[in-house]
C-alpha cells in the first residue's frame, strides 16, 4: 500500500509541475515563429503572383482569395480531428510539419528557375510569359501544404494554451486572460514585422524573403517539441459533430411528443452528471424547444443501469444545450463575413492602389507597396492598451457602463463601412490627381487603414472572445475554428464579387471597374459596393444581436466588472 501511495504522490507532483507559464512560453514561441513563417509568405503574396508568375490583378486576387478560403476552411476539419481522434498536441505537431513543407516548396518556386516563368522587365507583367502547368502545379501544391498546416495549428493553438491553466481557480482564470493578451500582442508584432522587414527583404530577393520564414518555421517546430515534458495534455472527448447529429436525429424521432413551453415538472428529461473534463454544466433553456424532445425520457429509453438504451434516440440535456449554443451563434457568425470582405482588400486591391501612388519617405527610401497595411496593425497595437487600461475602467468608474461583446462587434462593423467609404474617396482623388497634377501620396491610404484597424480591434477580437465564451470548454476547438471559417466564407465571397464585377461592370466602350490599369478602372465603385453591403449587413447584425440569448452562466463581461485584467 505504501508503494502504491508513494507512486500516486509522485504522479500528482509531476502533474502539478506541468502547465502554467513554463508551458505557455513554448506554445507562444511556437505560435509566434509559425505566424512569422506563414504571414511572411502571405503578406506580399499578391506581388509575388503579379511580378514573378505574371498574373493579372483579377487573376492574382482570385488565386489569393481561393487559397485563403481553403486555408481558413481547413481549421474546421482540424478541430474535428483534434477533438474526436488525436488531441490538440498531435494535431499541432503534424500540422507544423505540413506548414514547414509548404514553406520549403514556396522557397523552391522562387529559387529554382524552372519552377517559375522566366524573368521579364516589361512594366506590364501580363504581357510576359505565363506560367506552365508544372509551375502552377508546384505553386498550388505548396499552398495546399500551407493550408493543411494552418488547418491543424489555428484551431488548436489557443485551446492548447488554455489547457495549461486550471480554470476552476482564480489564478488559472487570471493566467488564461494574460495568455490571451500575450497571444494578440505577439500576433500584432508578427504582423508588423512581416509587413515591414520581411516584405522589404522580398523586394530585394524573393529567395531571401521566403527562406527567412522557412527557417523561422523550422525553429518553431523544434521549440514546440522541446516543451513536450511541460505540457498538460487533454484527451480527445470524441466527435462533437456526432453528438450534434445524435441530438437532431433523437429530436426528429420524437417530433410528435407534446412538451410544455415552460418546464413544469410533468416531463422527465435525461440529465446525468457531465463527463470528466467538462467544466460547464448547462441548464435546460426555453429556446429551440423542439430540440428538447431529444432529451425526453420515453418508455424503453433507459436500461436497468440508467443509461440510454439507444444513443440515437435519447440524448442528455447537456448535449441538447451544446447544439443550442451552436445554433445561437450561427447568425452572429454570418454577420461578421462582410467586415472580413472589407478587410481582405488590404492584401489585394489596396496593395495595387499603393503601387500607383507616391511611396517615397524622404529622397532615398521608397516604402514597399505591401507594407502600407502595417498602418492598420500599428493602430491595433496602440488602441488595444488604451481601450483595456484607460477606456474600459474609466467608463465603468464614471458611468457604470461597459461594452458587451455584441456591442463591440457592432462598432467594428461600422468602422469597416467607414473604411470602405474613405478608401473609395481616396481612390477617386488619386485617379483625378494622377491624370491632372502629380502622383498622390500613399499616406492618403492611412485614413481607411486606421479605420480598418479600429474595425479589427472591436469586431474581430470581439468575435474570438464571443465564440470562446459561448461554448463549453471541451468545444473550444470548434469555437476557435468558427472565426477562420468566417475568413473562408469571406474570401470565397470576395472571389465571387471580384469575378462578377470584373465580368459585368464594363462595356465595349467602357473598361470594367477592376481593370488591370487602375487609372482606366473604377476601383472606388468597388469599394462603395462593399460599403453598401456593409450597411445592409449592419441592419442584419442589429436584428440578430437584439434577439441573441447568451449561454447560461457567467459571461466574460460580468467578470470584467470585478477583475478588469480579464479584458482583452
Automatic annotation (TrEMBL):
<feature type="transmembrane region" description="Helical">
    <location>
        <begin position="332"/>
        <end position="355"/>
    </location>
</feature>
<dbReference type="Pfam" id="PF00854">
    <property type="entry name" value="PTR2"/>
</dbReference>
<feature type="transmembrane region" description="Helical">
    <location>
        <begin position="182"/>
        <end position="201"/>
    </location>
</feature>
<keyword id="KW-0472">Membrane</keyword>
<keyword id="KW-0812">Transmembrane</keyword>
<keyword id="KW-1133">Transmembrane helix</keyword>
<protein>
    <submittedName>
        <fullName>Protein NRT1/ PTR FAMILY 2.12-like</fullName>
    </submittedName>
</protein>
<feature type="transmembrane region" description="Helical">
    <location>
        <begin position="136"/>
        <end position="162"/>
    </location>
</feature>
<feature type="transmembrane region" description="Helical">
    <location>
        <begin position="441"/>
        <end position="461"/>
    </location>
</feature>
<dbReference type="InterPro" id="IPR036259">
    <property type="entry name" value="MFS_trans_sf"/>
</dbReference>
<feature type="transmembrane region" description="Helical">
    <location>
        <begin position="367"/>
        <end position="387"/>
    </location>
</feature>
<feature type="transmembrane region" description="Helical">
    <location>
        <begin position="64"/>
        <end position="86"/>
    </location>
</feature>
<comment type="similarity">
    <text>Belongs to the major facilitator superfamily. Proton-dependent oligopeptide transporter (POT/PTR) (TC 2.A.17) family.</text>
</comment>
<feature type="transmembrane region" description="Helical">
    <location>
        <begin position="408"/>
        <end position="429"/>
    </location>
</feature>
<feature type="transmembrane region" description="Helical">
    <location>
        <begin position="525"/>
        <end position="543"/>
    </location>
</feature>
<dbReference type="InterPro" id="IPR000109">
    <property type="entry name" value="POT_fam"/>
</dbReference>
<feature type="transmembrane region" description="Helical">
    <location>
        <begin position="93"/>
        <end position="116"/>
    </location>
</feature>
<feature type="transmembrane region" description="Helical">
    <location>
        <begin position="482"/>
        <end position="505"/>
    </location>
</feature>
<dbReference type="InterPro" id="IPR018456">
    <property type="entry name" value="PTR2_symporter_CS"/>
</dbReference>
<feature type="transmembrane region" description="Helical">
    <location>
        <begin position="207"/>
        <end position="226"/>
    </location>
</feature>
